[in-house]
Amino acid sequence: MNDIILFIIAIIITEAVTEIISKSSLFEPLRKWFFKKNSKFFRFIHDLLDCGFCLSVWIGTIVGNILLNFSIVSIWLDWFIVGLLVHKCSNVLHNLIDRTRGK
Q: Taking the CA atoms of the chain, what radius of gyration do you get in angstroms?
């Protein structure tokens, strides 16, 4: 499949998964469960799940590196670069969606 199409698919998947995890009622019990736990680790996870901007970095890194086969610098730096590219583009898509909804 064309790399540009795969990149666009990675952006759309990242946006969709981030929205489902950070805002949907489906994952609300999980977010609340992490919030009730009294440790820094669980509060960190709750904050991560609650923040779409933060969560999309990790979702973008995972999705981007599964779908895309970049070879820019090195394998570790490539993971980071691909994650940031997909994350930022998914944020642009999110902002466009919000503007069409009047938010």
A: 15
The pLDDT assigned to 74 comes to: 66
Distances (CA, A) of 36 to 16, 41, 47, 51: 26, 12, 12, 17
Q: What is the mean pLDDT of each run of 10 residues along the chain (103 residues)?
A: 82 89 86 80 80 85 79 68 83 85 74
Query: Burial, 25: exposed, middle or buried (Cβ in 10 Å; 0-12, 13-18, 19+)?
Result: exposed
Alpha helices (H) in the chain, listed in sequence order: 3-23, 28-36, 40-50, 52-67, 75-101
